[in-house]
Amino acid sequence: MRETHEPIPPLTRPSAGHVLVVGATRILRPAVTALAERGCAVTAVARSQDGLRRLVAETPGRVGPLVADVTTPDFGDVLHRATVRAGLTGALVYAPSGTPAAIEALTRDLVVSGPVVLVLTSKWAAPEAFAGQAAQAAQPGQPAQAAPWTPDSLPASSRPAPGCRRLVLGWHRDAGGARWHTSQEISAAALDLLDAPAARDSVLGTVRPWEERPR
Ligand SMILES: NC(=O)c1ccc[n+]([C@@H]2O[C@H](COP(=O)([O-])OP(=O)(O)OC[C@H]3O[C@@H](n4cnc5c(N)ncnc54)[C@H](OP(=O)(O)O)[C@@H]3O)[C@@H](O)[C@H]2O)c1
Prior knowledge:
Blueprint: E1 18-22, H1 29-37, E2 41-46, H2 49-58, E3 63-67, H3 75-83, E4 90-94, H4 100-109, E5 116-120, H5 131-137, E6 165-169, E7 171-174, E8 177-180, H6 183-195, E9 202-204
Parallel strand pairs: 1-2, 1-4, 2-3, 4-5, 5-6, 6-9
Antiparallel strand pairs: 7-8
The chain binds NADP nicotinamide-adenine-dinucleotide phosphate.
């Protein structure tokens, strides 16, 4: 395993594109292995060398590890050096892996010929995140958060670069109650959005009623 900031090794020639995955070792880990299985090359970013080493061992020749911290000032340069010659055809970015400023810089400066999917946690849909809008949309006598919620309600700051596709993570609800989604479900939804023929946003599960989210 290379040290942080060293160039990633040449990957097996990609037959189905080259995808960058930022935050590759936990929630989006199944997406990395699925991309590798379909023949993509993947540049996988995380801070933990051990986590990336395990991922690389599972996907021989397909995943190039980039041990780096998204929040460091030189991350943009590191990423550019590591990926510019790869010919990136898409990217999955787990937003909590960096500060909003770091994620904005990352998505703005990315050289990629295809879709960029940004995975946002449900806190982006919290009523307090857009209390003014929700209050305006509510009917008299109804609580503000009963208003329908769609990704159109997200603040502009949640789309750090034009064309960026946003996946908002909600929760799963059925007769048994409410639960958070698994990494497999989240990864599958992220790949669906990456594969979508046209740019759009999406919600995985539901984000309303807010009081019914799992604790
Ligand atoms: N519906 C929802 O909103 C929803 C659903 C599921 C989970 N979550 C939330 O997500 C939280 C955390 O889940 P998680 O552990 O999978 O995510 P995480 O700790 O935020 O890490 C996700 C990925 O990002 C990487 N990462 C984190 N910080 C980074 C940085 N500064 N630079 C580069 N890579 C970085 C991690 O690897 P390294 O640590 O090695 O860097 C890992 O691969 C949970 O506690 C839960 O609250 C929310």
